[in-house]
Amino acid sequence: MTGSSTHGIKTVLHPVSDLAKAKAVYAALLGMEPQSDSSYYVGFEAEGQHIGLVPGGGPQSMTSPVAYWHVTDIEAKLAEVIAAGATVKEAAHDVGGGRLVATVIDPDGNVLGLLQDQ
């Protein structure tokens, strides 16, 4: 199979109902304080992986964690996975700092995230 490749899963976002309580649990689990800490997002960098806490359900009302595959060309990867049978849940958009994210739904209803850093 040809096409654009991924750089693996490096980001996992967890929807949370209480950001302060979740931050305490994840800080204890990971043994560190968060590197990003605001009222709308808390992020930890742990062993080469980014773990994010998103209050209020996050993008498109997330109901479970979403793993984000890091890609070089998000539009090309979106086209490939859509051609293979996925459907777009959230189109590619900039979330700040030139970072683009998108989500798709696989044939079984699983949400897959794509992330491209500029």
Secondary structure layout plus pairing:
Elements: E1 6-16, H1 19-30, E2 36-37, E3 42-46, E4 49-55, E5 66-71, H2 74-83, E6 87-94, E7 100-105, E8 111-116
Parallel strand pairs: 1-4, 5-8
Antiparallel strand pairs: 1-5, 2-3, 3-4, 6-7, 7-8
* CATH architecture tag: Roll
* Strand line-up in the sheet with most strands: 2-3-4-1-5-8-7-6
CATH homologous superfamily designation: 2,3-Dihydroxybiphenyl 1,2-Dioxygenase, domain 1
CATH top level assignment: Alpha Beta
Kindly state the number of beta strands: 8
- Total DSSP helices: 2
- Residue share in helix: 10-25%
Organism: Nonomuraea guangzhouensis
Domain VOC: 8-117
Pfam families: Glyoxalase
Protein name: VOC family protein
Characterization of the model:
The protein is of the alpha+beta class and 118 residues long. It has one domain: 2,3-Dihydroxybiphenyl 1,2-Dioxygenase, domain 1 (Roll). The chain is built from two helices and eight strands; from the N terminus they run βαββββαβββ. It has an eight-stranded mixed sheet with strand order 2-3-4-1-5-8-7-6, with helices on one face. The longest helix is centred in the first third of the chain and has 12 residues. It holds the Pfam family Glyoxalase. This is VOC family protein. InterPro entries: Anthracycline_SecMetBiosynth, Glyas_Fos-R_dOase_dom, VOC_core.
